[in-house]
Amino acid sequence: MTESTYAELIGLCAGALLLTSVLTVWYRSQRASIRALALQGVALAALVAVVAVDRSEAELIVVAALVLVLKGMVLPWVLSRRPAPATGAPAPPQRGAGSAGDHGAGDHGAGDHGAGDHGAGDHGAETPMLNPVATLVAAALLGIVAYAVIWPLVAGSASPAAHAAPVGIAMVLIGFLVLVTRRRAISQLVGFLALDNGIATVAFLVSGGVPILIEFGVSLDILLVTLILQVFSRRMRAVFGDTDVDRMRELRD
Amino acid sequence: MTPVYWGLLAEIVLAGAAAAFAFLPGERARSRLAGGTCAALGAAGVVTGVLAMTGGAGGLEIAVAVPVEPLRFAPDPLGGLFIVLASSVGLLISLAGAVSVHGAAASRTAWLALPLFLVGMQLVPAAADAPSFLLVWEAMALGSTILLLAGHTASRRVSSATVWYAVMSQLSFLLIVAGFAVLSAAAGGTSFAALSSVSPTSAPAAVAVVLLVLGFGSKAGLVPLHVWLPRAHPEAPSHVSAAMSAAMVKMGVYGILVVVVRLVPGGPDWWGILLLVLGGVSAVYGILQASIASDLKVLLAYSTTENVGLIVLAIGASVLLSAHGVDAAAGCALVAALLLAVSHAVFKVTLFLAAGSVLHATGERNLDRLGGLGRRMPWTAAAFGIAALGAAALPISSGFVAEWMLLQSLVHGTRVDGVPVSVTVSIAMPLVVAVVALTAGLGVLTFVKAYGIGFLARPRSAAVAEAHESPVLVRVVLVIAAAGVVLLGLVPGPLATAVASVLPGGPEAVVATAGLLGVDLVAFDAILDPVALVLLAGVLATLVVAATVQAAWRHPQRIDASVWGGGGLRAQPRMQYTATSFAEPVVRVFDDVLQPARDVEVTHAGESRYLVNRVTFSQSVTDLVERGLYRPVLRVVDRFGVLARRIQNGSIHLYLTYSFIAIIVVLVVATL
């Protein structure tokens, strides 16, 4: 692969990562966010594959496959699993006393355009702390901060991969923004995973990834955390009727 | 691989085993096995301590993962004495606990915390550097806090007591850490050997000593840091309060001794005055509160403050005297301090275990509702009575010997070869003698009340009338402990020599054995020989008894009739003195200090002004220090706490926002 092709492919993948990051913030529908997260996982896998081909490292190909399977498929699947019998029927009324009425509408109506979606079902849209425009402005500002902070560090490097490193930091910050602004547990998980993707992106861009053993360990950790939090959010739904973490204020003492 | 090494290792292993037994199902098996192993832990500690006292070298090094020096445990003779003290108390209370605990005090948590508490306490005097000391100190504090919390579901007062205790523990810990930090910074090392290179006259030494004395004083229960004692001791399970009072507060005393004897010996005289004032105020205030307390365990708790006050007073006298060159009296005062510590440990463990038996048998701690237990619980009553002799410092108990020695050193401390040494000493010593005398007097009154009201006369409530004696093993423990009180009092010579041998100066210049195991204060030519006194008293008593019996023989017939009985019952239980009424004269005399709140409520019969249906009298005494010092501080803290709640409002989003802002700030700052 020529140098220019490599640079272009890196740029493409980085762009896709950043775009999907912004999409996770922008979408108000949980399903759409999860889909964006899956796309982000695929883009990350592609990025690893490009780096692998460029460095001709077989080990990195394995990592790319691992990333694809875990972040592109397994984690989004875990996140999108329905808590109730997953037949598409409306959730049983005893579950979710507060939001049971519009539960079904949220499930089916939750389109891919989060901004226009006002379904209040648990798996559907949510009401973030910031409105979509403010969120996008914040994401843009975070991107600028990331660039300003990282550029002095990578300016001296000739590698096109290193030049894309600010994207990783921007993903971390945007993932954090999702964590801060979303109310529902699942949406927060999405933010957490986007944040983790950002860290992985920085690692791959700057140093061609961490040793495969560590990569395995981290992946396992992420999977475990996600599974545990998924279980937690189910319990929360069972107890409170929804997964708005603001309801848990009283547990602090 | 010295014997001390194996001893310390055995302690840690046994503590681990006891903690493992705590997980057993079944309350009975758990208590027996874990309690038995804790007792073995105590036995191992006694052996280790004796080895260390007799000059056994070596110790245990535990490497830690973080890049600091390994934890070193290598007891010196002084530490050995306190290991023996803590371990014997641990041994006794474990045995008693194994058979007497039930309910929350026998839970897995409680049995897990007890070995932690005991092993922490036994390792504190073994620590040879500041980090190890602080680590085991915290283990001790944590274990005791958990034990105290064991009964929190039963009563709200337990949680409140635990909060007080935990806060005071941590306050004490912070002061100690700060003190050691100042000392380490000046010395350039954290081992006790390095710390002892700091000059006692330097500024860091002065700051460190004040911090450490306050920190250890809080653990020891000195006024004004004593507020946790009268809360924690009554609420803890009895075997735990026995260990806390008899052994744990001694670790505070040990800390003060380490500072003034081992780390920075030969300090200026104001250290001595500081300790004298702290100790004197604690002694008088403690015994005053004890003398008017009607809750048996609160009484014992305040008596702990009094005894620790006396110990610290003796240490202070020693520091003051040695600063003025009166070495003989200084050494004698220090030996007296150690003897007071030993005797307090012995009689206080007896008193608390006996109080625990009473509480278990009757469900009552309130002396006003006790009475008549002497006939119903003879073993417990006898043990309590003997230990009360020790607490009141009456002959032939160990407490008497210790206070006698303290008074000797105070009386002889003002002059060397007939020449007064300094104005400070000449003023201080008589005052201190007065304090000790007042304390001793009130001490007698307090324990006459505790024993007389609690165990003699007739039962004042139904539950007490049906009291039953405690399990056999508890009785055995009580007898052993009570025998200890008397034995230590009968053989002061060997005891004082052994105790003095752990001090840097050695026993030769201070004490020697004289007569029938009596003690001879070499410098003052004063001899106390209890065995001889007992024999003499025995001979005299025999003569008197013989004469009396003979006289009685001559007039065999004698009819008893109640003088003003009028044919009715001579005495209702309600006609007896209660603890409150017995202490009323003291309350009147010290009215200004105690500021009691009295309330008399008279209910008239019908419309009559002259016929009284009932009179209710209630009196409550709040802790003056608590009301005057702690409440205002707590109010201020509370106000800030309310403000802090806005920052910590429970919203996870707010917390995440804090981290988010922190990250961005760090990134930006790193770039600039």
UniProtKB/TrEMBL annotation, chain A:
Residues 86-124 are annotated as: Disordered. Residues 104-124 have a biased composition (Basic and acidic residues). It is found in: Cell membrane. One of its GO terms (cellular component) is plasma membrane. The chain crosses the membrane at residues 6-27, 34-53, 59-79, 133-154, 160-179, 186-206, 212-232. InterPro entries: HyfE-like (IPR038730). It is a multi-pass membrane protein. Residues 86-97 have a biased composition (Low complexity). Keywords: Cell membrane, Membrane, Transmembrane, Transmembrane helix. The keyword Transmembrane helix applies. The keyword Phosphoprotein does not apply. PANTHER family: HYDROGENASE-4 COMPONENT E. This is Hydrogenase. It comes from Agromyces bauzanensis.
UniProtKB/TrEMBL annotation, chain B:
It comes from the Bacteria. Pfam families: Proton_antipo_M (PF00361). The chain crosses the membrane at residues 6-26, 38-58, 78-98, 110-128, 134-151, 163-186, 206-229, 241-264, 270-288, 300-321, 333-359, 379-407, 427-451, 472-491, 531-553, 652-670. Its main location: membrane. It is a multi-pass membrane protein. Signal peptide: none annotated. One of its GO terms (cellular component) is plasma membrane. Residues 130-416 form the NADH:quinone oxidoreductase/Mrp antiporter transmembrane domain. InterPro entries: ComplexI-like_HydComp, ND/Mrp_TM. Keywords: Cell membrane, Membrane, Oxidoreductase, Transmembrane, Transmembrane helix. GO terms for molecular function: oxidoreductase activity. It is found in: Cell membrane; Membrane. This is NADH:quinone oxidoreductase/Mrp antiporter transmembrane domain-containing protein. It comes from Agromyces bauzanensis.
